[in-house]
């Protein structure tokens, strides 16, 4: 907790999808930092899972020996709705890995 591990993981931005007709959710990596491809990570079931818990460091789908950090992409601030507060709680789990040393 709170440790700085700048070399630990690449960052992969994800979007949440669900399978139509099911309650199964996936985090979709659109642009893998290793292979540039698209990967799917199960995020659980709508009924009993919090997909935010599946964010963070995960083994890369294309190379389990390596990890990347699943993050929600920064979004333009347009609508502040009911979901905003829930999102903020989720994003509170994000570690701050800004490009501070560039
Ligand atoms: Zn990959």
Quick overview of this protein structure:
By secondary structure, this protein is mainly β. It contains 1 helix and 5 strands, in the order βββββα. A 5-stranded mixed beta sheet has the order 3-2-1-5-4, with no helix packed on it.
Structural descriptors:
1 helix, single chain, 35% strand, mainly beta
Question: Which structural class is indicated by helix and strand composition?
Answer: mainly beta
Largest sheet: 5 strands, mixed
Strand residues, percent? 35-45%
Could you give the distance between the termini? Answer: 24 Å
Mean pLDDT: 80
Shape: globular
Region (Disordered): 65-102
Biased composition (Basic and acidic residues): 81-102
Task: Explain what you see.
The protein is mainly β. The protein has one domain. The chain contains 1 helix and 5 strands. The longest helix has 10 residues, at 82-91. The radius of gyration is 14 Å and the shape is globular. The mean pLDDT is 80. Residues 32, 34-35, 37, 39, 60-62 line the site of zinc ion. Residues 65-102 are annotated as: Disordered.
Strand-helix topology:
Elements: E1 10-18, E2 24-29, E3 39-45, E4 56-60, E5 63-71, H1 82-91
Parallel strand pairs: 1-5
Antiparallel strand pairs: 1-2, 2-3, 4-5
């Amino acid at each position: 907790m709170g440790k700085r591990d700048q070399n630990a993981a690449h960052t992969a931005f994800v979007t949440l999808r669900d399978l139509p007709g099911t309650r199964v959710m996936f985090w979709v990596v659109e642009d893998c930092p290793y292979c540039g491809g698209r990967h799917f990570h199960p995020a659980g079931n709508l009924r009993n899972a919090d997909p935010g818990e599946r964010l963070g460091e995960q083994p890369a789908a294309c190379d389990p020996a390596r990890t990347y950090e699943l993050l929600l992409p920064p979004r333009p601030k347009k609508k502040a709705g009911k979901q905003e507060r829930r999102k903020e709680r989720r994003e509170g789990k994000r570690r701050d890995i800004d490009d501070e040393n560039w």
